[in-house]
Amino acid sequence: MDIFIQSAAHISIQNPLCEDWFENPIPHTEGYNRSIEPDYKPFINPIAARRMGKLIKRAIATSVSAIQSADLEQVDAIITGTGLGCIENTEKFLSAMVNEGEQFLQPTFFMQSTHNTISSQIALHQKCNGYNCTYSHRGTSFESGLSDALQQMLLGRINNALVGGHDEMTPDYYNMLGKIGYWKQGEISEQTLKRSNTKGSFAGETSVALVVGTTHTQHSLCKLRDVDLLYKPSSESLKQAVERMLQQANLHVSDINAVMLGTSGDCDFDETYKRFAQTNFPNTPTLWYKHLFGESFTAAAFSVYAAATCLSKKHVPQHLVYNTPKPLEQPHNILIYNHFQNINHSLILLSQC
Amino acid sequence: MADKLVVTGMGIISGLGVGKNDTLQALLAEKSSVGTITHLQTTHTDIPVAEVRMTDDEMKSALDIPQNQLVTRTPLMAMVAAKEAIQQAQLQKQKPKRIAFINGTTVGGMEKSELFYRDFLDNEQHKEFIAAHDCGAGTDAVADYFGIFDVTTTISTACSSAINALIIGANLIKTGKVDAAVVGGTECLSKFHLNGFNTLMILDREPCKPFSKNHVGLNLGEGAAYLVLETASAAQERGVQALCELNGYANFCDAFHQTATSPNGQGPFLAMQGALADSNLQPSDIDYISCHGTGTGNNDTTEGIAITRVFGEHIPDFSSTKAFTGHTTSAAGSVEAVISILALQNNFVPANLNFTEKMDEVDIVPVTKTKHKEIQHVMNNSFGFGGNDSSCIFSKIK
Lengths: 353, 398
What we know:
The complex is a heterodimer of chains A (353) and B (398). Helices cover 36% and strands 20% of the residues of chain A. With 353 residues, chain A is of the alpha/beta class. Chain A folds into two domains: 4-213, Peroxisomal Thiolase, Chain A, domain 1; 224-351, Peroxisomal Thiolase, Chain A, domain 1 (3-Layer(aba) Sandwich). With 398 residues, chain B is an alpha/beta fold. Chain B folds into two domains: 5-238, Thiolase/Chalcone synthase (Peroxisomal Thiolase, Chain A, domain 1); 247-395, Thiolase/Chalcone synthase (Peroxisomal Thiolase, Chain A, domain 1, 3-Layer(aba) Sandwich), CATH 3.40.47.10. Chain B has twelve helices and 15 strands. In chain B, strands 1, 2, 4, 5, 6, 8, 9, 10, 11, 14 and 15 form an eleven-stranded mixed beta sheet that branches.
């Protein structure tokens, strides 16, 4: 069975809800960056929007946009990956409790604090009674959701799904993560990330919505061939997973035109990406994306979005290229490899339609 | 015909005790674990809860984890429960090729974050707990303890998390991505969600009375429970006994309100109907429904209405065991899955404790005293905030 990525939409630190980043990416120099907010009026009633947090607005706008681009009225399933859920509301309830005690708390922020608020608000907005699920598994939250959609389509339980990756980065959470080595000090540039010998990266925010489905349409961006999640794999078991994935897709190493990596500027974690490429794809160009979109728990959603865009346009822009042992051909097959702190790893295989 | 999915191990910790045997004995003795708060540091000491009696230190000792190792309460409970399930299924002795750990939780490391939140913001103290805050951190801590998992992920769909974990694990086995899955959920009490539920005014100051006319709310509980899933042929190959079949399951969304269920219980209706269809069973095949039955007016009425919509005139025996365990939120789906399977294996319907009189809104009465009878198929319901409604059916091996 062929499965397709039908459409995609993003709100991020690049120009939102468009593909400006493909030709003219915005360079970022700050360690902490919030998403560029679009006009939400086309997607959400302004009165309703006033009661929504940033993350929910972004999730609804990207979801509606992706569903419209896929020419669908409704989806069979709504699946969200989010590392932190509605952390802004969680923080509001938590700080009220910590600072003012347990007596006079208000329910609103608690109600909107659970991780599944995102998927459920999308379902409410779409009036969708279908399968609804939320993954919150650190750096592989989005890939877990994509895998869920894929398994269900393979089993014939659904024909299409909206799969999102959504995370906001509040100032407090940015500072907290800074204390445990998540962020670089000083000015960020493509070069500082590439030549980094320090820990950490720079922060962005993620809202990516994809529609995946079993029917090929004129809008389909690419094929979604496979998704693999791996927990602390040895280099050998990672190699076996790559071989298994290629074999099942009837592809050879040489058929992979580019490998998209989650390289972020963190000297330790990037070493793993280098080793992965050297071991498994020594002669294949490598791509990156976090220098455009920043780091967040669901940043991997951008790897799928960016690779799908390249396959759809049959072209890889130079700014996505990390390293080229040989000239980059027209991309037919892109393998995506991400890992979260060498703990949770994922492999995703995309092909041209 | 596709290979059947079977359960080959299960483990549980809750207010009722540690393990299947404690749980079974408490159920048969109709002994509730709802009582006064002892572990949780809160000013709401008048709110009854069902706490796991073991302290973190006691769990660490039982698990041979050094006392100074940083592990929060939610993963500790998960380790205790998963250990029982993994041992029963002999996953370590006869390791299947690829094993997934699919874990449901919502609170994550919150019980420590709420203690150290000021330090997180203002200074460098306790910063080691920052990385333990998110839901996935606990899942991976459990995976590290056992060292047998090839895939891990975390489901966070509030009070239906554990059943959804079961569904995802089952799908991964069916597509051949993994050969076995340990699925379930874990949740410790936190001040955060105790206060959250309190602001929603859905906590009963008395022991909860699910499906009763004068129900006023729920009692929170804490616990963890896990099942080991694999195909019948894989279990046979490994020489492991199947406890029951996971016959079918369904996940639907109520899409009505963030915290309330629609008046006609559409999400619960679709979930139960979907689980029946997925199992190729008729409503009349169900011998017992282990209900979500939290004790809130909204849940019990809408679940009751949904049950009448699915089962019509012939309502199967049903009960909520929340008055035994409290509402263990993200763990509820698997805590009650273990209870459902115990009911199936031992041929009894657990009592719906504290029932007073029938609700006005819907003409149904739960089983109020332990009822011994032959049980072939059990339906297990779990519904959550955000309208995340799921249902699954366990059946005896024929």
